[in-house]
Amino acid sequence: xxxxxxxxxxxxxxxxxxxxxxxxxxxxxxxxxxxxxxxxxxxxxxxxxxxxxxxxxxxxxxxxxxxxxxxxxxxxxxxxxxxxxxxxxxxxxxxxxxxxxxxxxxxxxxxxxxxxxxxxxxxxxxxxxxxxxxxxxxxxxxxxxxxxxxxxxxxxxxxxxxxxxxxxxxxxxxxxxxxxxxxxxxxxxxxxxxxxxxxxxxx
Length: 203
Description:
Layout: E1 3-9, E2 24-25, E3 28-29, H1 30-40, E4 45-50, H2 54-60, E5 68-70, H3 78-89, E6 99-104, H4 111-124, E7 128-133, E8 136-137, E9 141-144, H5 148-152, H6 160-167, E10 171-174, H7 191-198
Parallel strand pairs: 1-4, 1-6, 4-5, 7-10
Antiparallel strand pairs: 2-3, 6-9, 7-8, 7-9
């Protein structure tokens, strides 16, 4: 089973007040930490979609910048970055992967959670798998590769990933002992609790 991952890291981070990919996280940047976790997972390929402050973020990644693609349309919304990342996975006529992990930079997670979701997709035959925490859907989302054309066609006008989930309701995998799957780093006051849950330092 071939697995690819798309990390969406192109947004303006207005409510955070500084670029989310560059937040201090466990001795490195948030995006660097997330890339390390994704590399520890069973994902075979990783695409990181950048937009706002792209050059600064790219420089922060060092050798890992090889995973980066730039979305010129990032101000138009997250759906354009999803479409850009999905298109990169099949560029040059490559076959679509069997599974695609979609992760937002402001929703950090661990490698073992990613792998549990990938296994669930493989073992259940579901089109989409999503974790849940105490009855509420979480992240990241793992999508069967046969749906890649829907990801490539995502637009803000058609509600992006939400529309794909509406057409193919996710199989929810309960993770009631993992509050990490509900983390959402929108504002500075969310950072300390997220770092505590993931066991990382701010610097």
